[in-house]
Every structure is written in C-alpha cells, then in structure tokens.
Amino acid sequence: MTKVTHGRFLAVAAPIIFANITIPIIGLVDTAVIGHLGSAVMIAGAGMGASFLTGLYHLFNFLMTGVSAFTSQARGEERHEEVLKSGLRGMVLGLTIGLLILLFHNHFFFLVFLIFPAELIVNELALNYISVRVFSAPFALANFALIGWLLALEKSSNVLVIQISVTLANVTLDLIFVLYFAYGVQGVAFASAISEALGFAIAIFFCRKIFVRKIIYDKGILFSLKDWVRFSKTNSNIFLRTLMLECVAISYIFIGAILGTVTQAANQIMYQFLSLASYALDGFAFSSQVFVGVAYGQRNLEDFRAACFMGFQWGFAGGILLTISLLVFGKSFIEIMTVAEDVRQEANRFLFLMALTPLTGVASWILDGIFLGALETKKLRQAMFESVICYFFVAVATVPVIGNYGLWISVSILFLCRALTLIFRYKSIEYSFSIQ
User: Fold this and answer.
1) ∠ CA 228-230-232 to the nearest 5 degrees?
2) Mean pLDDT over residues 194-219, rounded?
3) What is the mean pLDDT of residues 121-126?
4) How many domains does the chain have?
5) Which domain range does residue 15 map to?
6) Residue 288 falls within a domain, yes or no?
C-alpha cells in the first residue's frame, strides 16, 4: 500500500498554503496602504517597483525548488549528509546572489526602465521603492533556500511561522511608516526590507542543524565541484524557465503601462489577486513535489502516482473554491484595495477574466511540482519555451484589438499551454522508473 495518504499529503500542504499566501499578502498590504492615499500614480509606482524587484528575486526561485527537490531525493535515498549539504549549499548561494543584486541593482534597473518606461513620475517612485528594499536582497534569497529545505523535510509548520512573522511585521511597519510617518512609497519599501531580514533570522534558527562542523570546515564536502556542477546544471534549467516566465510578467507591466496609468494601477491590484491564488494553490504543488521527490529517490512508482493524483485532486478543488470566491467577493476586495474610483471601475471590468485564472492555471502549477520533484528540469524549460511563444502570439493578436481583455485572455492561454505541454511529457517520467 502507498505511504502517501491524504492525511499525510494535507499535513504538508495545509501549512504551506497558509505560508504561501502570506507572500502575496505583503504585496496586497503594500498596495492597499498606498491605495488609500488615493493616488493612481503612487499605486502604479509602488506596484511597478515591487513587481520588478519581486520578478528579479523570482528568477532565483530555483533556490527554493532546487534545494527542495535535491533534499527530497536525498531523503528517499537515505543520504543524510547530502540532506544537510543541500540546505547549506543553497543558503550560501542565496546570500552570494543577493549581495551581487545589491551591488549592481542600479545598473540593472536603469536598463529595465529604459526598455519598459512608464510615466516619469511612476518610474521615479518605482526606483525609490527598489533602492530601499534591495538592501534585504541577500536575506530574501537565502531565505528561499532555507524554506525549500524545510519543506523537503516536511517541516511546513516552521515555514508557516516564518511567513506569518514576516507578514505581521510588514503590516505593522507599513502602517507605521506610511500612515503615521507619511514616508509614502519608501515607507512601504522599508517595511518590506525589515520584514524580509526578520524572516531570514527566524529561518536560520529553524535550520540550525545544517551548520555542522564537518561540512562547514571540510572544503572538499561543501565545495565539491561535482556536486556544484550537478546543482548548477539542474538549476540552470529552472532559471531559464523562470526567466521566460518573468518575461511574461514584464510584458504584463509594459502592456499595462501602454494602456494608461489607470489601467496599469488596476492591473497591479488584479495581479495581487492572481498572485494570492497561485501561491495558495502552489501549496498542493509543493506537497506533490516533496512526495514525488522522495518516491523518485526510492524508485517507488506507486507513491509517485499517488502524489501526482492527490496534487491534481486537491489542486482543482482549491481552484474551484478560489474562482467562486473571487467572483462573489471580488468587487468588495477591490474596494478594500483602493479608494480611487477610476481604478476601482477599471479593475471591475476585468474581474471575471482574472477570477478564471485559478482554474486555468492550477494544472500547470501542479505539473510544475511533479516535474521539479523528479528533477526533470530540462523538460520544464522546453515546455515553458513553447508556452511563452504561444502567449506572445495571442497577446500580439488580441491586445491591439480588445486592449486589456486580450492581455488577461493571453495569461490564461499561457497557463493552459503550460499544462498541455507538460502532460505530453509526463509519460517519460513514469518510463524512467522502469529503466533505473
């Protein structure tokens, strides 16, 4: 009988879901606090800065998914030292990448704003936001790796504590810096930066077991060229796949800017809802990834199939619930997010299309988890390339004709293409069980 039961699956997924939704809640709170200042320009500026910086961070999401996959498979193979090395290796890499971002962010974002300009005042506000929040980049990226390690060990309750602490700190500091001290967009950035540093400190406490003398002081263990090559090869595919996804996110901001500041501000609010839905449903994908990784390490096809089935079953149930919730309560959510009437009206025009995205996207997110757990990252990259080509084709064809409606239709098309291209490749993973 399979060891992957619904109870065990949900015991991992539920805390991850609650932990995950705290990530976009930071963006929701930032946008809502700025939104209550009544300025579409400030909403667009803060949203643009947060989107660009979060998008840059997201390029290195392999620190979470890669560490989680390697750790899960090491657990399945009962290689206990490799379990510890995976967490420490990911943390070191996260700190290094974050430090490089901090040192060179001015040059990078200067080019970004040249390529994707909005109104001058919006660009200035976005850059003000980035120049403050970027100081927490090393902590934010190292935290990706530590969270991935905790998830692979099924310690999702620890992740929940980390994310709730970050969210509560962010909400409190947002209110203090923006509404009390009137620091505006920079106040929102200060709140996020301090919160991310706090999250790293708590994660270090939960992951203190990775700091083993034998691993830290023996360079031949931690800095094994063979291990780093394998780690880099796998994660380069995740990086390229995520880079393509971020090109879509940047195009979303760019198209919104072309359609006008009010539309851009409305899209920022809608994007926060989409992020909330995707992060929530990603809890089921992460749970699938963990159990797929362990089953793959053990070469247990029955557990592998059980993890896949439960991911789809619970994922679609969650997708239906979220879509219904957005359709019923979406207008009220928008009113909470901003007092700017023009932005409210614009957001309500596209609420229906945005509310469908949990259903159109859930299969692709679950399949991502399955392929990551099996470390089939090359196939993920190939499927993403095909899907992004389809997205841009649909966007170019529809946006000039039906405007922002075309953009939201293109987003759902992207999700559906990702699901179809991965389903086409799924059998190859099951086949690998018979030849190993």
Assistant:
1) 65
2) 83
3) 78
4) 1
5) 6-435
6) yes
